[in-house]
Write a structure and sequence with these properties.
alpha/beta, Spore Coat Polysaccharide Biosynthesis Protein SpsA, Chain A, seven-stranded mixed β-sheet, 11 helices, 7 strands
Length: 387
């Protein structure tokens, strides 16, 4: 079985050599596998590619593939090369900073031999953990759990954000149309899990510890690229949700009706009645909340519809409670947006706030707390397998 270790790199001159050395030593202990190392380097200015070229002169199983910048673009290019040019049976993508320790590879290959098609080392499986700061824990929760797991509905595994995984090629990865994957950043991780699920792949998670970088600087930070990646993640998760969920389509229609209520009453309160800005945003949002509750109960979540005057009243109070977040988000962001851009941009700000902030928040809250169709995954931390 030919195993291609696909290493994505950018400015990793301190780590690339030790990683290749480790994999070469591991290959000697696993003679039943034909190990190949493919480094997909995005033209690192620090000389990472030159180091790989030196290794390639010594070892015939080491390859350098120079790719455009962007983790998604780089990995997609690497997947295609590993299948088409190297004849891979299993592809194991990973970073080169040792945060995902390659020592897990033998256990991953064992699971492949057992019949699993995708094996994911997981921070969310029992025994798994991470080394994240409070900021990283928050961003991981937002991206991995809130946006991709809940909002996107990608539930084949719990850890959707890691690069490290083992993927069977025949009948699985070779069924994925990689040319149609228009993703650039780290959203490639959740996207490839979703695309693999469409092939009927059998998934497995094993516990893993996400450790510290061996050397060099991390790529995740509060910068422009970070916000671009988050926006791409939201857009991609929304596309996946639309593909997967008829309920979401109904939710979207109800949401659009709520938007019309919101927009028209906002115009009435602010443009005609001249209410204070925060009052206009707050009142129009509450009227949209009432509309959303009625139609979501009658149509979107009709399979678990709330019945009886007492229960409806109780749930409406809870609904308003969960909607406080939406009310605060819309009122604060809307008011600030008008102050920054001016009142002429009020009706432009509203759909932007609703699509990118309110809809993901509301859909998550409704499913967890009001109609209770989702369970919170981290309350049960046992490994999950989707057949």
């Amino acid at each position: 079985m030919k195993v291609v270790n696909l290493l994505s790199s950018y400015n990793e001159k301190e780590n690339i050599g030790p990683m290749i050395d480790f994999l070469m030593q591991q290959a000697e202990k696993l003679p039943e596998y034909e190990y190949v190392i493919l480094v997909a380097d995005s033209h690192s200015p620090d000389g990472t590619g030159e180091i790989v070229k030196e290794y390639a002169k010594k070892y015939p199983n080491v390859y350098l593939l120079e790719t455009p910048r962007g983790l998604g673009v780089s990995l997609i290019t690497g997947y295609k090369y590993a299948m088409e040019e190297l004849g891979a049976d299993v592809i194991i993508p990973n970073d080169v900073d040792f945060q995902w320790d390659p020592k897990y590879i033998p256990a991953m290959l064992e699971k492949i031999e057992e019949g699993y098609d995708v094996v994911v080392p997981s921070r969310h499986a029992s025994g798994g953990k991470d080394n994240f700061s409070a900021f990283r824990k928050l961003t991981h929760f937002v991206s991995n759990t809130l946006i991709n797991y809940y909002w996107g509905g990608i539930k084949e595994v719990k850890d959707l954000a890691g690069n490290f995984k083992a993927i069977r090629v025949k009948g699985i990865l070779d069924k994925v149309n990689l040319d149609k994957l228009n993703v650039k950043g780290f959203v490639i991780q959740s996207t490839i899990i979703y695309e693999l699920s469409k092939t009927g792949a059998k998934f497995c998670e094993i516990p893993a510890i996400y450790g510290e970088r061996r050397a060099g600087e991390g790529k995740v930070g509060l910068n422009l690229q970070f916000f671009k990646d988050i926006l791409e993640t939201i857009i991609n998760a929304t596309k996946i949700r639309i593909e997967r969920s008829k309920r979401f389509v109904r939710f979207g229609i109800v949401g659009f009706a709520g938007y019309l209520v919101n927009a028209s009453t906002l115009f009435l309160f602010s443009g005609i009645l001249k209410f204070p800005e925060w009052v206009s945003w707050g009142l129009s949002t509450e009227l949209a909340v009432i509309s959303n509750f009625i139609w979501n109960n009658l149509w979107t979540f009709k399979e678990v519809k709330i019945k009886g005057a007492k229960n409806v009243a109780k749930k409406f109070i809870q609904f308003n409670g969960t909607s406080i977040g939406a009310l605060l988000i819309q009122t604060v962001v809307g008011t600030l947006g008008v102050k920054i851009f001016g009142p002429n941009y009020r009706q432009i700000l509203l759909p932007f706030i609703i699509v990118f902030l309110i809809i993901p928040y509301n859909y998550t809250m409704y499913n967890i707390f009001i109609w209770k169709t989702w369970k919170i995954p981290f309350l049960s931390r046992s490994p999950k397998t989707a057949e």
